[in-house]
Amino acid sequence: MIKRLDHISVVVEDLSAAIDFFAALGMSIEGKAPIEGPWVDRINGIEGIRVDIVMMRTPDGHGRLELTKFHHPPLVAIEPAAAPPNAAGLRSIMFAVDSVDDAVARLKAKGGQLIGEVVQYQNLYRLCYMRGPAAIIIALAEELS
């Protein structure tokens, strides 16, 4: 039986830009560390790993996002680099926000790209998808009261 979802990890090329992107969404840095050594090689099944990680936390203190920058070995390219929403694998990370419009504006200023449109689902939510660091999809949901 699991205790909780601890964190989600995202591998990024530009660690500073990824930190800025998620900070614009309201996340804060919980910790930073260089990681290397036999234990990380063994758990990943790759020799010579050297990474920097930054752990970011949501304002409520419950959600965490690990941003990982590989120094060695080099990143492996995937095709297509910006997978469409119907690609197999991790689809998106959803964040509840106070204002979708405000969040979209702040994330666009940090390089985020709106994928489709901001839409309203019934009288419950305003929603959208944005592409963020490492071409991941961020979902934003504003609860309508």
Descriptive account of the structure:
The mean pLDDT is about 95. A hairpin with a 5-residue loop joins β8 and β9. The protein folds into two domains: about 60 residues, 2,3-Dihydroxybiphenyl 1,2-Dioxygenase, domain 1; about 50 residues, Roll (2,3-Dihydroxybiphenyl 1,2-Dioxygenase, domain 1). Strands 5, 6, 7, 8 and 9 form a five-stranded mixed β-sheet that branches. Helices cover about 20% and strands about 35% of the residues. The chain has about 140 residues and is of the alpha+beta class. The termini are far apart. It is globular and about 55 Å long.
CATH homology superfamily name of the largest domain: 2,3-Dihydroxybiphenyl 1,2-Dioxygenase, domain 1
Tally of domains = 2
Biggest sheet record:
5 strands, mixed
Protein structure class = alpha+beta
Helix content: 10-25%
Order of helices and strands: EHEHEEEHEEEE
Counting H and I runs of at least 4 residues, what is the number of helices? Answer: 3
Q: Can you count the beta strands?
A: 9
Determine the N-to-C terminus distance: 35 Å
CATH topology assignment of the largest domain:
2,3-Dihydroxybiphenyl 1,2-Dioxygenase, domain 1
Radius of gyration: 16 Å
Shape: globular
Question: How much of the polypeptide forms β-strand, as a percent range?
Answer: 35-45%
CATH architecture descriptor text of the largest domain: Roll
CATH C-level class of the largest domain is: Alpha Beta
Q: Are there runs of 5+ residues with pLDDT below 50, and where? A: none
Global mean pLDDT: 93
